[in-house]
Amino acid sequence: MSAFVVSSASAAAPISAADPAFRFEGRFDTTHADAPVVIWQGSRITLGFEGDTLALNFGAVKGQVFFDATIDGKTTRVDLREGQPPVGATFTGLGAGRHALTLFKRSEAAAGTAVFRGVTLADGATIHAPAAPDYALRMLFFGDSITVGANNEDGIEDQWDDRSTHNNAKSYARLTADAFSADYRNIAVSGMGICEGYVPFPVKQIWDRVYPDPTSPRADLTTWTPDVIFLNYGENDDSFTKSENRPFPAEFATEYVALVRSIRAAWPQAQIVILRGGMFGGSESPRLRGPWEAAVAELERTDPKITHFAFEHWTPHHPRATDHRVMADALIAWLRDQKFVVRR
Asked: Are 98 and 47 in contact (CB under 8 A)?
């Protein structure tokens, strides 16, 4: 149980994001304590409060940012678009007594970021720190659009103009973490590859950054230590080079091994699971499978805390929410048989 913290709010007086009652979970830009930048999908902000109303306060928004806001078990969407006023950021009729708020960033880091400024409550209302979550373990997912959950609420066709239908809350990664009551982090970027992809930089340049940008400061990796790390890459190395009529990257296996060893150096005790699949390339492309298997064999040969899992289910477009559920169920079933998934 965390220490009980209470702050008073006067009428229409905002409570700063720097108030210790707020709990932040994820990789944030905390350069300014009263204006943390919410970056990565799956990032969470939680708060306990009293009063009939609550307004979320935001600063600068870049691109498109979408949150799931859950108050007392009821979830609605908060829409933030650069240059436009927030939609769905004010809540009324909540009733008397205590309430619990969770903000979950459902849209990916590369689509947009938002400065969180805190909340405004009713006259005389108070806030308090929520109880510390009873997590069984910590799970960190690295990957591309599949792990992001891109397009998973789209119709027949994938679309990228409106990111409100790209919902990390329904990704196989989040569903898997929830099944194990895990503290969940997601550092994935659509279009990213080990060597090549639809973004102009490979995984090795951003996996340890605060933002999905090679020029960003490096994150402090000592503040949160994962128990299980998942990586799911290769789809873009395959599909992008195919679209350019070029061969699969010859250095893929070598670069994958180097990436995993860099991650291992950051977190020496973590279990690492190398994933493959979810779309055509990862599941069906022989030119990806061979190098992927070579990388896995080398990693497992030299590191007893590395293993692998390949999804059998795949889709020709980005997986929809129902596909993510199938993928998660398969991964969950496999994980339950692994000795490294144990409660603290």
From this structure: no
Angle at alpha carbon of residue 42, lines to 91 and 189, rounded to 5°: 130
φ, ψ dihedrals at 171, nearest 5°? -80, 160
193 contact partners, CB below 8 Å, separation of at least 6: 144, 202, 203, 233, 234, 235, 236, 237, 240, 249
Kindly give the pairing relationship between strand 306-310 and strand 271-276: parallel
Q: How far apart are CA 65 and CA 6, in angstroms?
A: 29
**What value does the mean pLDDT take over residues 244-253?**
98
Domains contained in the chain, CATH given: 6-128 (2.60.120.260), 137-335 (3.40.50.1110)
Please report, for residues 135, 144, 245, the alpha-carbon distance to residue 149 in angstroms, rounded to integers and kept in the order given.
Answer: 23, 9, 27
Q: What angle do CA 104, 274, 185 make, to 5 degrees?
A: 15
- pLDDT tens, position by position, 79-97: 999 999 999 999 999 998 9
Token pair recorded at residue 124 = 């005389």
**Distance separating alpha carbons of residues 278 and 310, to the nearest angstrom:** 9
Q: Give mean pLDDT, residues 148-157.
A: 98
